[in-house]
Amino acid sequence: MARIDLHLHTTHSDGSLPPAAVLELAHKAGVTALAITDHDIVDGIPEALQAGSRLGIEVIPGVEISSRLGASELHILGYCLDWQDPTLNSRMARLRESRHRRNPLIVEKLNALGLDLTYEEVRALAGTESVGRPHIARVLMGKHYVQNAKEAFDRYLAEGKPAYVPRELPEPAEAIAWIREARGIAVLAHPTWVKQNGEEGLVKLCAQLKAGGLGGIEVHYSTHSPKQTTEFLDIAKRLDLLVTGGSDFHGVTKPDIDVGVGRGGLTVPATLLEPLKRAAAA
Ligand code: AMP
Ligand code: FE
Ligand code: FE
Ligand code: ZN
């Protein structure tokens, strides 16, 4: 079955490979179409488009915007959007500024815990304006404070851990509206992050978000069990939401996830692409 991958990160946010290298991996994995979905930034798209035309891979403009609803951090993917839209880009610039306000506070907490690092080191490693906790994790890895990103999150960076600092985030409805105003399709990413109780809680939330313009749900995902995939497919059908999927490839901070195939068993069917593009053109 022809496969696509609609969830990929590059060095323009917290991925460890540049867009062209991600597309090379996609090409090797037999991916026929993909979306680069960096956090709060679209700067990787030109290089991806160029590599895509060279390799014969269709590149869908994409982005991933973090939001918060109560106890849940929800990520909203945007597809087929006017990625050069000035309003969208100034909104994302503000999100990136909120990262720069939070990250030094995380570094201060790590310093207080006896770990020696500076935010300048983090920014230099990141080499982008969309700086995230995975960049901090990589600095900690480089200094041998932790062996991998998972350990950095489990010991220090995850919510509830000693160096956690929350970030000002938009509500999901706002993130959805921003994507819609840039004429894109908004999709709920990795729905297992939703902390509403059970399948009915998720259905209720998706119905609410759909009323606010949500267009789809990320059904196929690297870490979903067959049972979860079936459950999310069922919800998409019940609510008439588009079905999408992707690996959420990040490179070194998620070393078990490969482009196109996730942990090995992921196949996002290429047949999902046409409905997405049709909805975007409507
Ligand atoms: P931030 O955008 O700075 O809030 O960092 C959140 C990002 O960190 C997520 O989008 C993931 O890419 C990554 N992340 C979250 N938890 C982990 C983990 N346990 N291991 C590796 N990466 C993680
Ligand atoms: Fe990420
Ligand atoms: Fe995400
Ligand atoms: Zn992601």
Protein described:
- The protein has 282 residues and is an alpha/beta fold.
- Helices cover 43% and strands 18% of the residues.
- The chain has 10 helices and 8 strands.
- It has an 8-stranded mixed sheet with strand order 7-6-5-4-3-2-1-8, with helices on both faces.
- Strand 3 and strand 4 form a beta hairpin.
- Helix 4 crosses helix 5 and helix 5 packs across helix 6.
- The radius of gyration is 18 Å and the shape is globular.
- The model has no long low-confidence stretch (mean pLDDT 96).
- Adenosine monophosphate binds next to helix 5 and helix 6.
Describe the SSE topology.
Blueprint: E1 3-8, H1 19-28, E2 31-36, H2 45-55, E3 58-69, E4 72-79, H3 86-112, H4 119-126, H5 133-142, H6 149-157, H7 172-181, E5 185-188, H8 198-211, E6 214-221, H9 226-239, E7 242-246, E8 268-269, H10 273-281
Parallel strand pairs: 1-2, 2-3, 5-6, 6-7
Antiparallel strand pairs: 1-8, 3-4, 4-5
The structure holds adenosine monophosphate (AMP), fe (iii) ion (2 copies) and zinc ion (ZN).
Treating each run of at least 4 consecutive H or I residues as one helix, how many helices? 10
Main sheet: which strands, in order across? 7-6-5-4-3-2-1-8
Specify the biggest β-sheet: 8 strands, mixed
Structural class: alpha/beta
Helical proportion, percent range:
40-55%
Instruction: Write down the Rg.
Output: 18 Å
List the quaternary state of the chains.
Answer: single chain
* Bound chemical compounds: adenosine monophosphate, fe (iii) ion, zinc ion
Question: pLDDT under 50 segments (min length 5)?
Answer: none
- What is the element string, with H for helices and E for strands? EHEHEEHHHHHEHEHEEH
